[in-house]
Amino acid sequence: MPAMAVDAIERMLCQFIESRRESMIDEVRRYVAIPTGMGYAPGLEEFRSLVTKRLAALGAMTSLVPGQPRPQWLEYPPSESQPAVVPPALRASHRAKSSTPRVLITGHLDTVHDPQGSFRQLSISADGGTATGPGAVDMKGGIVIGLTALEALAACGIDLNWTVLLNSDEETGSFHSHDAIFAASKEHDIGIALEPAMPDGSLVVQRLGSGQFQIEVHGKAAHAGRDFVKGVSAVNALGDILVTVAKWSQPSDGLIVNVGPLQGGQTTNIVPDYAACWGNMRFADERGAKELQQWLVGLQTSGQLLPRIVVNQVINRPPKPLIAPVRKLAEAAQGAAGDLGLQLDVGSSGGVSDGNIMQAAGLPTIDTFGARGGNLHRTDEFIELESLVERGKLLAVLLARAARGAIRLS
Ligand SMILES: [Zn+2]
Questions:
Q1: Cβ neighbours of residue 33 closer than 8 Å, sequence gap 6 or more
Q2: Which of 42, 54, 136, 166 is least surrounded by Cβ atoms within 10 Å, i.e. has the fewest?
């Protein structure tokens, strides 16, 4: 089949995106300067309301979806952790006048960066090619790309059913926003998330799943010198468990178990009556997830016998395999990229995103339509500024093709 050329309306979309080149950089600068890391509510609220105004200007109905609390056992260190503030998710839905596929675009307003830290502003490199800043690529640049692509559609009179869903807790596992994402995913046909592309621009089409766990060990305290034999060391028992758990990882099969942080003991001359560890598990498929979950359950003891072992666990991002509809969506994106003169490859990642939740709800999703850049989650995080225009055009053209029914996933 010959490559579909960019048509007149798609050229208009591209011209619109080109005309926004400077303003897109300004928007990234403005958004990056709003601190939204570590659940910082004032920053999240400020950023959320800016984005709400832009979406409302496109004729979207906006609402705040209340979040769920996270399980308390996830918090570390447990004694110092405040109950987390539960942020809402912003949902903005635009209904088309005619029937079109329904596209769900997700993103996160939060970053991993310390709102009080010294990494606070966008700084553009001497040659103007890249810019560092907290959340520049993960994912304030992506949000600018998503909003600009939708604005391009509106400016060119392209009618599409779309919903934008922006949460505020993606970087901490989307526990608060899981249900909002899952419910919205059920109501849509095509899933897009604005996470950063791979460094070369590739789309991630396959991801491992991820879960969290906590192992608690209860022992019996005793003075180490006077009553040592009466004690039951929770630390020693946890040590034995860690040796077992360390053997579970089979990275070549996509099974990964990482343990840390650890807690145990109060002082050196008392046999510790409590120890705990927190960990993360990754798996390529349902079978791997079940296996790890059963192994964890198998560590638990029954009754009151000491040491007593209690396991808490949750799978918050199911695996995201490369299913046929995702392959078709990737091919549609590659087709659009080719017509725009861009090379677009696909790859896989051990990292997880809200795309895992979207696809688990049955929505074929590609979650890396955001900007190109690198050093995510570090204080030298950077964005490739040219990618704002490049990915803006790609997304706008892809959405235009979805609007006219040219993307068939089943
Ligand atoms: Zn991200």
A1: 120, 121, 122
A2: 42
CA pair distance 312, 211, nearest whole angstrom: 11
**Residue 237: what residue type?**
A
E strand or H helix at 384: strand 382-384
Any idea which residue has 């996270």 for tokens? 70
**Which secondary structure element, helix H or strand E, spans residue 143, and what is its range?**
helix 141-155
3-class DSSP state for residue 385?
coil
Check residue 84 and give its pLDDT.
67
pTM of the model: 0.95
* Centroid of ligand 1 to alpha carbon of 377 (angstroms): 9
Query: How far apart (Å, rounded) are the C-alpha atoms in residues 146 and 390?
Result: 12
> Between the CA of residue 15 and those of 133, 231, 389, what are the distances in Å?
27, 74, 10
Task: Determine the 3-state secondary structure of 278 from DSSP.
Answer: strand
One-letter amino acid at 64 equals: L
Neighbours of 273 (CB within 10 A): 21
Burial (Cβ within 10 Å: 0-12, 13-18, ≥19) of residue 184:
buried
Q: Which residue has the tokens 């897009």?
A: 192
Q: How far apart are the C-alpha atoms of 209 and 288, rounded to whole Å? A: 9
The rounded Å distance from CA 171 to ligand 1 centre is 7
Angle at Cα 106 formed by Cα 376 and Cα 383, nearest 5°?
30
Instruction: With beta carbons less than 8 A apart as the criterion, state whether 300 and 310 touch.
Output: yes
- Cα→Cα distances 210→166, 174, 286, 315, 397, Å: 21, 12, 11, 6, 32
pLDDT of res. 80: 64
Mean of pLDDT values over 110-137: 97
Distance from Cα 264 to the centre of ligand 1, integer Å: 33
Q: How confident is the model over 225-243, as pLDDT tens digits? A: 999 999 999 999 999 999 9
Place of tokens 């790609």: 394
| CA 241–ligand 1 middle distance (angstroms) | 33
Q: How far is the CA of 303 from the centre of ligand 1 (A)?
A: 43
DSSP-based three-state secondary structure for 211: strand
CA-closest candidate to residue 44, choices 161, 165, 166: 166
Per the structure block, which two tokens stand in for 110? 């939060």
Q: Which pLDDT value is given to residue 81? A: 62
Considering the chain, what is the average pLDDT of its residues? Answer: 96
Amino acid present at 48: R
Amino acid code (one letter) for 35: P
Q: What's the rounded Cα separation, in Å, for the pair 142 and 131?
A: 14
